Amino acid sequence: MAGEFYLQKALFPSFLDRLRQDGYEVHGPQIKDNAIVYGPLRGIEDLPRGFRDHQGPGRYALGAAEVDEEALWFAWANGPQALKPYVFAPREPLWQAARPDGHRLQFTPYLPPPRPLAIIGARACDLAALAIFDRHFLQNGEPDPQYHRRRENLLLVAVNCSHPAATCFCAATGDGPQVQAFHDLVLSELAQGFVVGIGSERGEMLVSALQLPPADAGQLAQVQHSLARAAAAQQRTLPGEVQAKLLTALDHERWQQVAERCLSCANCTAVCPTCFCFRAGVDGDISLRVSDHYREWDSCFNQGHSYMHGLTIRGDTALRYRQWLTHKFSFWHEQFGRSGCVGCGRCISWCPAGIDVTVELSAICG
Ligand code: SF4
Ligand code: SF4
């Protein structure tokens, strides 16, 4: 069943009902603490309809949409939250060691319960990041059981971006604004409905169950126009040959200059959809018979991240910022065959010091 179909906005509640009937818990974008994040979606009334985001270095604000955008439900770019917490929990137990009878040790793994989850509104950059996560957590040696359990229960209803933020540069990294892969369905928004593209068998079954009509030539032309406009609206870009140039600039004076502004707060790595560093820890029991072993997100900006045998390898901020940039934009190519940046721009908007990764790369590699 190839092709693209048309879903009227008036039928969107039936679409959500269908997902629930199929056993999915439905999550989608909504406003919380003055930002657009994902959460449980009760209905279309929860969507941030009629809102626009305003983003810049160290700046994120929501405001009313323009009059000609009021009918749109997705006329905004990503907020701080990517798909990351849905597949890689910020903190989670991994396994327990116990000695219930005082002698033999027992080991029990913790696995998240199966939870079919449909996420509405994922964007192209976040699906590109998910592809990197799949490679890291599933294809890089033994699959990560916790990630695998969450990932296999995910249904992704993506939305093509029509209104990128000023901080977006997915067109420069080749990851957006058009959704390319890793979705079950992709929606392109028009004033009265959505053009629906199919990305998987599960998506095909949903479209078939809803008996959607094919999209017409006029609707498809509007989608192409919207995507071209979204790509052209992006102002930020990356300098050429970053991968090689960064490695010849390890002593560049800019590392020290950026370190004078950087707070080592780790906001950039927390919001980055491709950062997956974690640290492992143990919650002990006073009886010394049970220990729970967990992992939680870590960051190369944390001092403890590079601590080894009494020595912190990257003791100052300049070294940590350099580690972040050189890993993401250079060494990542060796690990994953591509850069670690999908151009979402979150690290620019959510950096309290307003440090802009595209500006820093231009200064170092331009
Ligand atoms: S480095 Fe910044 S722009 Fe690139 S993917 Fe991470 S948060 Fe997004
Ligand atoms: S670059 Fe910005 S967000 Fe990242 S650690 Fe430094 S101050 Fe924090």
Please provide a written account of the structure.
The chain has 366 residues and is of the alpha+beta class. It folds into two domains: 221 residues, no CATH class; 124 residues, no CATH class. It is built from 13 helices and 15 strands. The protein has a seven-stranded mixed beta sheet with strand order 1-11-10-9-8-2-3, with helices on both faces. A four-stranded antiparallel beta sheet has the order 7-6-13-12, with no helix packed on it. Strands 4-5 form a two-stranded antiparallel sheet. Strand 12 and strand 13 form a beta hairpin. It is globular and about 65 Å long. The chain starts with a strand and ends with a helix. The model has no long low-confidence stretch (mean pLDDT 95). One iron/sulfur cluster binds next to helix 10.
Please specify the SSE layout and strand pairing.
Layout (H helix, E strand, L loop, with lengths): L3 E5 L3 H10 L3 E8 L2 E6 L10 E6 L2 E6 L19 H4 L3 E8 L7 E4 L7 E6 L1 H15 L6 H7 L2 E6 L10 H4 L11 E5 L3 E6 L2 H10 L6 H16 L9 H6 L6 H6 L7 H5 L6 E7 L5 E8 L9 E2 L2 E2 L4 H20 L9 H4 L7 H9 L1
Parallel strand pairs: 2-8, 8-9, 9-10
Antiparallel strand pairs: 1-11, 2-3, 4-5, 6-7, 6-13, 10-11, 12-13, 14-15
The chain binds iron/sulfur cluster (2 copies).
Strand content: 15-25%
Radius of gyration, taken over Cα atoms and rounded to an integer in Å: 22 Å
Low-confidence segments, given as residue ranges, are none
User: How does the helix and strand content classify structurally?
Assistant: alpha+beta
Elements, N to C (H/E): EHEEEEHEEEHHEHEEHHHHHEEEEHHH
Counted beta strands: 15
Helix % is 25-40%
| Number of structurally distinct domains | 2
Average pLDDT figure: 95
Oligomer: single chain
Q: State the helix count.
A: 13
Largest β-sheet summary:
7 strands, mixed
Q: Can you list the strand order of the major beta sheet?
A: 1-11-10-9-8-2-3
Instruction: Label the overall shape.
Output: globular
Question: Hetero groups bound?
Answer: iron/sulfur cluster
What is the terminal separation in angstroms? 47 Å
